[in-house]
Amino acid sequence: MTHSFKTGLMLAGLALGALGLADPSPAHAEDDPIRVGSFLAVTGPASFLGDPELKTLEMYIERLNESGGLNGRAVDLVHYDTAGDANKARTFVKRLLEEDEVDVILGGSTTGTTMAVIPLVERAEVPFVSFAGGVSIIDPVKPWVFKTPHTDRMACEKIFEDMQGRDITRVALISGTGGFGKSMRGQCMDVAPTFGIEIVADETYGPGDTDMVAQLTKIKNTEGVEAVVNAGFGQGPAIVTKNVAQLGFTVPLYQSHGVASKKFIELAGDAAEGVRLPAAALLVAEKLPMDDPQRPVVVGYKATYEAVHGEGSVSTFGGHALDGLMLYKGAVEAAGGIEPAAVRDALENTRGYMGTAGEVTMSADDHLGLGLSAFRMLEIRDGDWALVE
């Protein structure tokens, strides 16, 4: 089932300049709306990603149109719900490019759906900003592809960096077999030696698995395991967390930024206590120091989102959508219009943009632009997020 939404764009709660759109794309008349295409997993197992992403895009876009649009032109959001299915993603992106004739594509909730459409956007030469985590999206660099969240490789590095401070060297991996889990597992295996980490156990689980006791029992019986890292997203990590508690594990459990929403804590319940994970500062917005340069951005977005969708409803995933929208806005400003190649070049030359994920500085060799310091190490304490000092 698809959902098509046509709204416009406003970045409320953040300081915005006027967006000058001097020259329309040759494909459109001068008074035609700017077309923002999106494909997100609003339903299905990855809906905890796509739902806040779509709500964010709709919310900010609608408000701008209410205030007159962009330089007198409306901005239409054309969206299709992939339910996390890669085949649907290909179909919908083909439609966005060929029938809807969008000027940019913002979306792709998961690594799998994002990777499935990259050949289409590259061939069409339309700028694409993904909201998914896999490093393979931007490494190697693809000319027309950018992304907003921290990568799975960065997650491994941040986790192992934290382990160094706890004198942990012998680690067990348990990973989902989907696109993100498989990719993060590979990245963790690759960077572990750099941090003096030895992977002493390596287990996996499928997307439909409802119990990981067998895999975790093998890990528990492996001699010398000092910590467990779970690479995955969706319900799997919550099940792993519950099973770890049931089996009486006494070693630290680390999750990825793929669970960086309140939904994970709700699903895992009391078993989530003490779990650590790297995540964007958005989850601890009000707990950041007053002089933290990222604080106004994340506090502003959190307040704006929760005023509409309820207290405690904000997640890092909606923040990825906001960052994608802001990056496109900045690129259009710099390009002086929406001509695809000019916007692509401007995205690549983004410098010092402070978003919900951190400070972004891109280049021809880096279509993400985030350093490891953009990640914050968090711990779940008393059912909420806490900064690890």
Automatic annotation (TrEMBL):
GO terms (BP aspect): amino acid transport
Domain of life: Bacteria
Pfam families found in the cross-reference section: Peripla_BP_6
Keyword Transport attributed: yes
Signal peptide: 1-29
Domain Leucine-binding protein: from-to ranges: 33-369
Keyword annotations: Amino-acid transport, Signal, Transport
Family statement drawn from the similarity comment of this UniProt entry: Belongs to the leucine-binding protein family.
PANTHER family assigned to the protein according to its UniProt record, in alphabetical order: BLR7848 PROTEIN (PTHR30483:SF38), LEUCINE-SPECIFIC-BINDING PROTEIN (PTHR30483)
Name of the protein described by the UniProt record: Branched-chain amino acid transport system substrate-binding protein
Biological source species: Roseospira visakhapatnamensis
